[in-house]
Every structure is written in structure tokens, then in C-alpha cells.
Amino acid sequence: MSQENADRARWFGEEVQPHESSLRAYLRNSFPSAHDVDDIVQESFLRVWRAKADHPIQSTKAFLFQVARHLAVDQLRRDKTSPIISVKDFHELAVMEDGANAAEVACTNHEISLLAEAIASLPERCREIVILRKLKGITQKEIALRLGISEQTVQVQAARGLKRCDKFLRRRGIRGTKA
Predict the structure, then answer these.
(1) Cα–Cα distance between 98 and 95 in angstroms, integer?
(2) Which segments in the chain show pLDDT lower than 70?
């Protein structure tokens, strides 16, 4: 190792390295959303090392912290505009989504909209019973008590409502509905 490199190494060990723990603490406190403080510290050390080769540094600590602050701000800006999500195991990364594709979602949304229309087209009492029984899952007995009618009426109205909804949907090309 040349004398110049030995002097720089000594300078680094005496003037830069001792500030590592306070630099980490500063970065964690000032930039809590910075995801990789270790990288910022290492890059700061490298930049200070290179700067020392080009020109004398008046206050090493102040320069080190200034470099680290700029690097942290740059990292946060990059993350804000282009967030990178780290992946530990590439085999678990789903390249294709398992969920429904856009066409299936649009079709399902259309069918739900038609079902809402079908229910809305029912007579008032029938609609109320279908909603309570089939959508809210309330028992026939409880519906009968709520509405002051017999369980038999609830059963008949629910069946009629479902038949009417099925007919409504079939007229609009929806097949295979199940109640």
C-alpha cells in the first residue's frame, strides 16, 4: 500500500468511521421511511472517500452528514415515483394473477346489475321477502314475525320472487341461475 493510500485509510479510520453509529441514528430519525439505511451509510462513506481524493475536506463530519442527507432524500424521491417491492423468493411471485380477468369481472358486474334490476321489478312485499330471506339470510319464521304474516306466506312469496327473478334474467340471456 502506498503512503498516500495509507494516509487516506488512517484518515478514514480516524475522521469518518467514528461517526457511523451517529450517522445511522440521524438517518433513522430524520428519514424513518428510508428503507435501506445501510446502503445510504455505505454510499456516503464511498462518496466521502472519493471526495477526499479530489480535494481537502474542511469538516469531515459535516460533509459526511450532508452527503448522507442528500442520498436519503434522493432515495425517498425515487421510491415515491417508482416504488420497488423487494421479493425474497422469486418462486412465490405470482406472475399471472389467479383472480378473475377483466372480462369475467365485467360480466359478473353486469349480471349483478341485472339481478338488482330483477329484484327491483318485484312487487313490494315480494321484493322485501326475497331481500330478507335470500340476501340477508333471515329465517322464514323471523320474517313472518317481522312482517306479521304466516311462514307459509313467506315461503310462497320467496318462491314466487325467485321464479320471477329467474325469468327476468333468462329473458336477458343469463342462464343457469340458482336460488
Answers:
(1) 9
(2) 1, 82-103, 105-107, 176-179
